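Example S7 (structure tokens).
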């Protein structure tokens, strides 16, 4: 990738207040109860957010295409229609108790880059695409990064369509219901490069007073579903020694995940985010318990060891308590390294724009994990307040958002051979 850098380029900046206003307008769609968002994948609120994004992109002169799993591609034409597009994107869906910026910043920063190029009447040789990837969060329909995974060939379209939420509604039916099931065959559109801006969702950049995270890669993740089956019984008349208590097994499994993660410090993390007891009644000994496990590490061997220890630990807990224990793997994404050339380009832009920057490995998963399999990919991170995310209190400053978006603008301008 040869990129010319003109003198104009050194002064071009995005419109910070317009970006912030756009972020705040999107935040009004699917509000939470404490200032954040609840705009879960394929809900009516997700549909409303998509419609708003589409309107903004059309107002910016972009053409819209939607693929079979609802991924939205907004295209700004280039001077060479045969050149492969340069893509920016992330996700508009949120956690059930989510923030206003996780994913959303990356999508709307891409829109702001296009708006800025429009303001300056700057053309680019390559087309530029801004993408909203369907169901990155994976909290309503597991797994995470689902539709970017279909795009990258990790999952099939039919497999995605069959995923169910807790109420038994399928991804395919919900995508159709909200009117966002497109007809573009998934994965047919190829990119020359992909760049994603995302909030760090961790404490490092803010603590070190750094403006820009140059993301060299991301840690691997595995999700497990653990089910204990005992026997529900009367809480009053069943002696302690006669119980087959699935709830007690689940409690020990929560402790097991913590112990396994602490065994692999400083990098590994382990979380039990969901725990359901049945019959979930005060005066009944739980007959069954289902919990989800999220384990992550930048080291593939450590991730595998954690899964092995959890599987062995569940079997021991089940034996000790006279219940059955079952472990199913829900998903796995190996640790990922981003394209060295694109990463260096991000570093160069941060430097030439005068921002402080440092290399960082992503703790959270992102659509870029899967894009890295099919196109040269890089990520840019901005700090977030106290490193808090997946929490309505998630917050960033307009300046942090602008800095990340300026680096995105100049990185994409180089990759797309824009005329500045
Ligand atoms: O789980 C993740 O890392 C992402 O936030 N979906
Ligand atoms: Mn995200
Ligand atoms: Mn997230």
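Recovered sequence:
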């Amino acid at each position: 990738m040869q990129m010319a850098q003109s003198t104009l380029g050194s002064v071009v900046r995005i419109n910070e207040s317009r970006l912030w206003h756009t972020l705040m307008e999107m935040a009004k769609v699917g509000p939470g109860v404490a200032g954040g968002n609840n705009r879960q994948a394929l809900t009516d609120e997700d549909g409303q957010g998509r419609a708003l994004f589409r309107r903004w992109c059309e107002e910016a002169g972009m053409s819209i295409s939607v693929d079979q799993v609802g991924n939205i591609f907004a295209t700004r034409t280039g001077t060479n229609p045969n050149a492969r597009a340069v893509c920016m994107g992330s996700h508009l869906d949120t956690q059930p108790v989510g923030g206003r910026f996780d994913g959303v910043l990356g999508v709307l920063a891409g829109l702001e880059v296009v708006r800025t190029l429009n303001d300056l009447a700057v053309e680019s040789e390559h087309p530029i695409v801004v993408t909203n990837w369907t169901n990155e969060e994976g909290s309503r329909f597991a797994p995470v990064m689902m539709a970017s995974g279909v795009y990258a060939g990790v999952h099939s379209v039919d497999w995605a369509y069959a995923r169910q939420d807790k109420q038994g509604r399928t991804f395919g039916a919900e995508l159709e219901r909200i009117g966002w099931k497109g007809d573009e065959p998934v994965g047919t559109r190829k990119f020359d490069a992909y760049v994603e801006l995302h909030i760090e969702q961790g404490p490092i950049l803010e603590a070190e007073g750094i403006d820009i995270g140059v993301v060299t890669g991301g840690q691997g993740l595995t999700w497990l579903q653990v089910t204990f089956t005992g026997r529900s019984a009367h809480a009053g008349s069943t002696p302690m020694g006669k119980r087959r208590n699935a709830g007690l097994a689940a409690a020990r499994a929560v402790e097991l995940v913590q112990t396994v993660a602490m065994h692999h410090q400083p990098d590994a993390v382990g979380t039990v985010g969901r725990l359901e007891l049945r019959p979930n009644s005060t005066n009944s000994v739980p007959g069954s318990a289902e919990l989800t496990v999220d384990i992550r590490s930048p080291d593939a061997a450590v991730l595998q060891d954690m899964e092995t220890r959890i599987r062995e630990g569940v079997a021991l807990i089940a034996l000790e308590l006279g219940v059955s224990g079952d472990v199913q793997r829900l998903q796995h994404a190996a640790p990922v390294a981003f394209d060295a050339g694109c990463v260096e380009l991000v570093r160069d832009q941060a430097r030439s724009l005068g921002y402080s920057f440092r290399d960082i490995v992503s703790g959270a998963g992102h659509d870029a994990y899967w894009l890295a399999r099919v196109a040269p990919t890089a990520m840019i991170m901005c700090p977030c307040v106290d490193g808090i995310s997946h929490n309505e209190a998630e917050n960033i400053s307009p300046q942090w958002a602008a800095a990340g978006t300026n680096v995105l603008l100049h990185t994409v301008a180089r990759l797309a051979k824009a005329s500045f």
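Notes on this example. The longest strand covers residues 220-229.
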